[in-house]
């Protein structure tokens, strides 16, 4: 009986973790928008509404991927590594927002974005053999993070 309750609890905890990361990052982003609108941006910068919509979809896909790992991946060392990297990914995601929009440390934001992208690739690599669906769910996230990394780099270059 305890196992069943524990499994059901993940359907609350994992989405709440994702919601917390997204909400805190969104709060910091919203507070930094006046600054963001005052700096030089590349002409190819997507509209804020597009960026917000893409991040919403990516957070949903990442939540589904985390739930798949939690519910389907065999317990053991690799499972633990995947879960740890998912949690680190969430913190990196939040801290990128804080570095970029909160304290305007663009160069550090580039470094965090690169590490964030690597963390997505690590999850994909670790999960691919047992859960190929995780690859499909997280590939758009990896692509977007590397695009966002290049955008962050471009913003840094334009404003230094």
Order of helices and strands: HHHHHH
**Structural class computed from helices and strand pairing:** mainly alpha
Quaternary form: single chain
Indicate the overall shape: elongated
Annotation, overall tally of beta strands:
0
Report strand %.
under 5%
Helix content: over 70%
Topology:
Blueprint: H1 2-31, H2 33-38, H3 48-72, H4 77-102, H5 106-127, H6 132-158
Helix pairs in contact: 1-3, 1-4, 3-6, 4-5, 5-6
Describe the structure.
The relative contact order is 0.14. By secondary structure, the chain is mostly helical. α1 packs antiparallel against α3. 85% of the residues lie in helices and 0% in strands.
Name the features:
160 residues; mainly alpha
Task: Kindly summarize this structure in a few lines.
The chain contains six helices and no strands. By secondary structure, it is mostly helical.
